[in-house]
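Entry 0007
Protein: ABC transporter permease
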Amino acid sequence: MNLPRSLGPATGLPWRPVVVLTAGGVGLLCVGVLWPGTVVAGAAVTLGLPVLAGAAAYVLDEAAGEAVAAVPTSLRTRSLARLLVAAVLVALGALALVGVALRGGSGAKAGITVQLTGLTLAAVATAAALRRRLAEPGEMVAGGLLGMVLALTTAHPLQRWVDVFPSEAAQRWAGSLVLWGLVAAVSIAGLWAATRDPLD
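Output (structure tokens):
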């Protein structure tokens, strides 16, 4: 099967970690579909978000970075082709979260998609920045992201000001949406800067 030329860089993705983490993340989200309203489902959904975002962190890994840098395609163009895969991962997660919302009888659950999008953008922006020094930053970013989410959900350091990962209608969604909007904006700006060609 011939891919469009613009999608060529996506063929060099490290598919194994991307597929394994995506399957794990979507599987955790599906726990919320199968057992809605339970403590296990809530924990699985919260854990599924950084696992999916961690899969997106791997899309910018490039083992043959020096060889690829010699091709006449710009770094930004190569990065955008790979980021289409990250967008597909977010879409899969969003689809699973719609299922969680339908089974749980609460439209608020679909709002968790904002958290997934913010985490994914933060993951790919961090990976893009680290790629300046590391050819394959995906593992480091995915592990760090998972650790950060676990710390935020267990220690609740920001609880006084905002619910970072709300999942119920009665929680403070307004502050959370502002927080994740800021994370997304900073991540997009960082991603734009990090994907600039070194000689620009």
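Curator remark: Residues 1-8, 64-70 have pLDDT under 50 and may be disordered. The two ends are 34 Å apart (CA to CA).
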